[in-house]
Amino acid sequence: MRLLHTSDWHLGRAFHRVSMLGAQAEFIAHLVATVRERGVDAVVVSGDVYDRAVPPLAAVELFDDALHRLADLGVPTVMISGNHDSARRLGVGAGLIDRAGIHLRTDPAGCDTPVVLRDEFGDVAFYGLPYLEPALVKDRFGVDRAGHEAVLAAAMDRVRADLAGRPPGTRSVVLAHAFVTGGQPSDSERDITVGGVAAVPAGVFDGVDYAALGHLHGCQTITERVRYSGSPLPYSFSEAEHRKSMWLVDLDAGGRVTAERIDCPVPRALARIRGTLQELLADPGLARHEDAWVEATLTDAVRPAEPMARLAERFPHILSLLFAPERAPDDPDVSYARRLAGRSDQQIAEDFVSHVRGAGPDPHEQDILRAAFDAVRADAAEREVAR
Asked: CA Rg, the chain, in Å?
């Protein structure tokens, strides 16, 4: 069976101040053409169809158009909700849409009820695990402590139990939206950290033939059977080195995986350039970036006059301007930024306690801080669901 694995469309999202709707429409057309031209048997979309819980009307219209075009091909499509989506909104009408071959899986309770498709070698069971917010689903899955690994492991236990009751030789595909250990994040994914721990081990997906992941925006292979497709378009300058693509995956009769990357059309290259204003205006080596979307970081010790306007004369598509003046290592601003770099909210809070009273929190106090952060996140998630 041949699958086309994609995710993280983020319909309705802009790139800085540039609307991406046109590029998103071009991607949908590319996806449909790929399905038709490459003999795809099923499409899997691993979450973050929309960029926010209440998407703009133009994004909803584009999604509607995508559903109609996929249904017209007669090729089944399985989709899950991601952490950016409203599961309830995305899942409206799922039962009716099923009849057209579009299978929306947005309810965690249905994670062990697969979409079963057949090819000449038998059944392939597709299990859709929508984004699982630990604080909201831990009771449903019977886990004692909210955490991504615990709830995802419980969901996968249900998947494996269902799979064990199916005919021998049934192959399996799991769609999940999560941060798996070994994946490389970018700046454009929304943080899903709970209790300071967001990543789950790839081994949680043991027992299935292919895990089609969403959430991280870079296309990457965690193992041969566990892959991220990445987003089809860039949504931050941290993705400047990404090759935007989808996975074309073949499952043979024994469930062995072969995969090919299918490049996606992108409207412009991204470029991150750095130096003093005069260096950026004069360096001939930067000529290759003059038609790109540009993020410029100025290192001038004193902020120059009208830098954006002057840079735009050479780089007409510049979108972002940052300032990082070169300073001595003992400068207070430099040392403070270094202290915070790469630290979680939990670690920063613990450092604050240590700074105020001269000793860090004990294990009980650490649990209190962790519970407070989890409660804030759960409250935010509940408010978003209720919107």
From this structure: 23
